[in-house]
Every structure is written in C-alpha cells, then in structure tokens.
Amino acid sequence: MKEFDYIIIGGGCAGLSLAYELEIHEKLRDKTLAIIEPRAEYKRDKTWSFWKVNPHNFDDCVKKSWEHFSINIPGKTNHLQCKNYPYQSVDSGLFYEKINNKLKKNNNIFFFKNIDEVNTRNSFIFNSVPNIKKKHFNLWQHFCGVEIKTKKNFFDDDIFNLMDFDCEQRESVHFFYTLPYFKNKALVETTWLSRMNDNSQKDYDQQITDYIDKHLKIKDYKITYKEEGAIPLFYPTYEKEKNKINIGTAGGMTRLSTGYTFLNIQEHSKYIRENIENISNSKSFQIDKKYKFLDDIFLRVLDRHPEKMSDIFFNMFKASPKTVIKFLSNKSNFLDDFNIILKMPKLTFIKALFY
Ligand SMILES: Cc1cc2nc3c(=O)[nH]c(=O)nc-3n(C[C@H](O)[C@H](O)[C@H](O)COP(=O)(O)OP(=O)(O)OC[C@H]3O[C@@H](n4cnc5c(N)ncnc54)[C@H](O)[C@@H]3O)c2cc1C
C-alpha cells in the first residue's frame, strides 16, 4: 500500500480547506497528500454563513453578503447593521468545485474512499471525522432550511433575519432564520437548540410550510434546494496522538453557543499551514478558553431556562452590533465581553455558575 506524507481523513469543509491552504502556499510541491472521502460526488449540501471578521480564501464562493440584519421576539424587532463585519453566505457547491479544480492539478494529491486503502504508519494525519457518542444530556443545534423562489418579488434582500423567535417554542429554544439572496429567493430555516432526544421537533417540513404561509404570508413559491443538519453543542471525544491532529467539528472548531464553525476552520487551516514543517511539535490550536468558559455557562442557562432565551438573545443585541459580532466570532476584548455580560440576566447566570 502506498505511503503519504500527509493524510486528511474527511474531504468536507475542514479537510478541503486545509488541503487548499497547503496547496496555494506550495506546501505540497514536494510532499504527498491522501484525502480520504467516501462521498460518491460533491454537490451543494450546506450553506456556511458567518460575519467576516477575518480574511479567508473563499470570497469568490460567497452567494451573498449583507450589511444589515434583524432579530425578532413577539411584538419587537431590532434592526442592526454590520458594515464593519459583513455577514457572508458561502455556497458549499461553489466551494467544493473551486477546491477540487485546484487540487486535481497537483499530481502529489490523491483521493481515496476508505482509509484501509492507504498505509498510515509513517504519515501525519489530519482527522475531520468526529467521534460522537449520543448522550441524552447533550445539546444540539438542529435545523432544516429550504431555499424558496417566489413568483413575485417579496424579500428585502438588503437585510437578513438572524433570529425570529415569533414561533412556537415547545418548551425549547426555537427560531427561524431567513437569508434573502434576491428579492424573489431566500433560504428559510427552522432552527432548534435542544437535547434532541426524540423526533418531536423534527416535523421540519410542516414548521417551514406554516412559517412561509402564515407568518411570511407567501402563497406562491417553489422549493429549489433543501438542507438539514445537526451541529453538536459539545466537543466530540478526542484522544491526543503524536502524529494526528483533529480538525473541523472533530477538532473543536465549533463555537458552542452559536454553532459557527466555518471561519474557525479557516483560521485553523492557516495555523497548520504556518507550522506544517514542525507540526508534530506545534502547540495545538484552540478557540480561546474564555469563550469555552462563557459558552459553558450560557448553555447551562439555555438548558435550564429555554423560556428565557429569546429575551436573552434579543437583549444581547442591544449592545452595539460590532461588540456582539466580535464576541460571537471570538474576537472580543475585555471591554466587549463586559458589555455583553451587562446585557445578561445577572442572577440567572451567577446561579448557573454553581450548578
Ligand atoms: C447543514 C449545515 C449547515 C451549517 N451551516 C453553518 C453556517 O452557516 N456557519 C458555520 O459557521 N457553520 C455551519 N455549520 C457547521 C460547520 O461549519 C459544518 O458542519 C462544517 O461542514 C464542518 O466541517 P467539517 O469538515 O468538520 O465536517 P464536514 O464538512 O461534515 O466534513 C466531514 C467529511 O468527512 C466525511 N466522512 C464521514 N465519514 C468518514 C469516514 N469514515 N472516513 C472518511 N471520511 C468520512 C464526510 O463525507 C464529510 O465530507 C453547518 C453544518 C451543517 C451540517
């Protein structure tokens, strides 16, 4: 069996981002790379959105970028702007195509369907396949979104809706998320933050139909694309090994309070590329520990008091949007953190510190 200098297990967002980063910085000119990816073909399967707080390699895969957004609770709407950090939506179809077109030009890069097809003994391994054991107490962000095309122009495509809590909560945390790409095309997503111990919140199609019909009051539309997923709001199990690094969701790149992962993956790829010559001895790259601490408390409150969360999210965005975005994107300073903490119900959060 053939040996490789590097092996990437999983050619999804993190695996391909890393391979691309290494390739464009010519780190694979004299090194061989095997990418292990079981999928039969690459097609659009996700929409990765985030506030652009960092430059990244995929501006040309951005479907749409917004400088305004809103957040709603019943009877109240807050309109906000994000000119400093525009919110971008990356189309995974364009992302896969761009990367694969680039990688296939390098004869040192090989694709395999299964890890058993390669000799792993002397390679450095980047693993993006998470080891997730389902436990009843784990929280998930689970969601389903449809892209709809309306007959008439309906949406204001200058502003996206980050969270609309004006919907049934079922003793959980539930909101809709709407990304208007054009005046007649938008992604409408139903999102739950819950333990997902059964299927009682997974009547996604009905939830979306009701929201579009009764809330948005759109009658004439067709569905052009659908995506569904679940992001673990906990860290997958991870055993440290000398010649192996976990990347992506598997490598703890998800911000647990939000599910945002894409830009952290890009930062991690850059870090690995900068240290690739001495990667076995490099410090591990992590989301700053202060966010892990704060997110842990936040998720405890969410778990204990789902009924308070719509107000908590709404009030958090009463701080300046720049501050909130920096906080949610791991870029906040002490003053930003303090401003966010001031918007939280203090007693509830202090109690959460102790249970
Ligand atoms: C539908 C969806 C929408 C999301 N939207 C956002 C968003 O808007 N913003 C954001 O920041 N984050 C978002 N996320 C979270 C996160 O960015 C994505 O999950 C991202 O794809 C994580 O990258 P990854 O490489 O860790 O996992 P993946 O992209 O899932 O890649 C893992 C790869 O491993 C492959 N694989 C599976 N089993 C094996 C095996 N045994 N051997 C080898 N390969 C295997 C899979 O086929 C897959 O290609 C979203 C997640 C989902 C599911």
Verbal overview:
The protein contains nine helices and 15 strands. It has about 350 residues and is of the alpha/beta class. The protein folds into three domains: about 5-45 and about 90-130 and about 235-280, Rossmann fold; about 140-230; about 290-355, no CATH class. The protein is globular, with a radius of gyration of 21 Å. The model has no long low-confidence stretch (mean pLDDT about 95). Flavin-adenine dinucleotide binds next to helix 1, strand 3, strand 14 and helix 4.
Topology:
Blueprint: E1 6-9, H1 13-24, E2 33-36, E3 47-51, E4 62-66, E5 68-73, E6 76-81, E7 87-91, H2 92-103, E8 109-112, E9 124-127, E10 140-150, E11 159-164, E12 173-182, E13 185-194, H3 204-215, E14 221-232, E15 244-246, H4 262-275, H5 289-304, H6 309-316, H7 321-328, H8 334-342, H9 346-353
Helix pairs in contact: 1-2, 1-4, 5-9, 7-8
Residues 9-15, 36-39, 46-50, 128-129, 227, 229, 231, 248-250, 259-262, 265 line the site of flavin-adenine dinucleotide (FAD).
Regarding quaternary structure, what we see is: single chain
Approximate strand percentage: 25-35%
Q: Roughly how much helix do the residues carry, as a percent range? A: 25-40%
Uncertain residue ranges: none
Quantity of strands, as a count: 15
Distance between the termini: 52 Å
What coarse outline follows from CA principal-axis ratios? globular
How large is the radius of gyration? 21 Å
Mean pLDDT: 96
The strand order across the widest sheet is: 6-5-11-12-13-10-14
Number of domains: 3
CATH topology group of the largest domain = Rossmann fold
Query: Which architecture of the largest domain does the CATH hierarchy give at level 2?
Result: 3-Layer(aba) Sandwich
Q: Count helical runs.
A: 9
